[in-house]
Amino acid sequence: MQDLRDKVAVVTGGTSGIGFAVAQALGREGARLMLADIDATQLDEAVRRLQAAGIETEGLATDVSKRDEVERLADRAWERFGAVHIVMNNAGVAVFGATQDMTHEDWMWSVNVNLWGPIHGVESFVPRMIAHGAAGHVLFTSSFAGLVSNRDLGAYNVTKAAVVALAESLRKDVAKAGIGVSVLCPMRVATNIANCHLHRPQDLGGAGTSTHGGARRHRRPGIIGGGGRGPRRRRHPPEPTLYPHAQGSGEVCADAGGSHRGGFRHCPLTLRLRLESGARTNLRH
Ligand SMILES: NC(=O)c1ccc[n+]([C@@H]2O[C@H](COP(=O)([O-])OP(=O)(O)OC[C@H]3O[C@@H](n4cnc5c(N)ncnc54)[C@H](O)[C@@H]3O)[C@@H](O)[C@H]2O)c1
Predict the structure, then answer these.
(1) Which residue in 94, 215, 217, 259 has the most C-beta neighbors within 10 A?
(2) Is 70 buried (19+), middle (13-18) or exposed (0-12) by CB count in 10 A?
């Protein structure tokens, strides 16, 4: 997909961090946006900012772990825009701690959001995209942890590896329908993921899915892979720029521009999303 003008893109977890940055970048390239996020307040603010930048945007509060909510998101996207060309299954959470110390609720929450979320995205969007017949692209945000397991991130590693498998399987199965599939596997990006516990459901040991805090606990908060040395302040949200034509046919680059402190080297990332031909994302830093 070379030309993003007037294409319709749905981004889950689209109000913060990587999702919001990609939404901005897609919008700058002319895409129309449907943002989904569990955080309704953040969603309003993100939609307002994108609209103020002249990007046609609608938001729908959506918990990706709930199949009916993702189905509703797809219904609304088609109702509003009449098509969906790009779906980015990006929403994710991380529970830090040793694999053997994960509670059943830790596993449930991780799997519900990080794996069921993307599966719901496939179920709700892909058959309709195929039926619609237009070229399209499905993106997943996995993690470098989906390729190489990190210490103290067992549940996260498992879900992210499964997302890579989901993306690779889907890519093989939808290629004939003209739909490309990519999976983004970033390393450390300075985002709000350390606050993900704020949306942990009560029945899975959290404070609920609203925008306020007060989580039951939060093990080893920090940037993913941060080694658990305590809370880190968010320094620089990623500001990716999409370059649809910059890297040859069919590739889009997102320059996340991340800068990481407190034990990390400064690390501007270039995340290359291969929109047509490759399932795995190249990561350069
Ligand atoms: N930050 C990193 O270092 C890093 C590294 C590798 C992969 N990732 C992945 O990138 C993706 C985006 O995370 P981020 O780092 O930008 O974090 P972030 O917290 O800034 O953004 C994630 C967004 O997802 C939303 N969200 C959380 N649970 C949700 C749910 N159940 N339904 C819908 N929305 C929900 C949050 O409200 C938030 O807006 C995640 O899948 C994460 O695992 C992040």
Answers:
(1) 94
(2) buried
Angle formed by the axes of helices 154-174 and 117-132, nearest 10°? 10
CB atoms within 10 A of CB 248: 8
State phi, psi for 113 to the nearest 5 degrees. Answer: -85, -50
> Amino acid letter at 94?
A
User: Would the pTM of this model clear 0.90, i.e. be above it?
Assistant: no
Q: How far apart are CA 190 and CA 187, in angstroms?
A: 10
All domains in the chain, ordered by first residue:
8-284 (3.40.50.720)
Q: Count of residues for the chain?
A: 285
153-182, pLDDT tens digit by residue?
Answer: 999 999 999 999 999 999 999 999 999 999
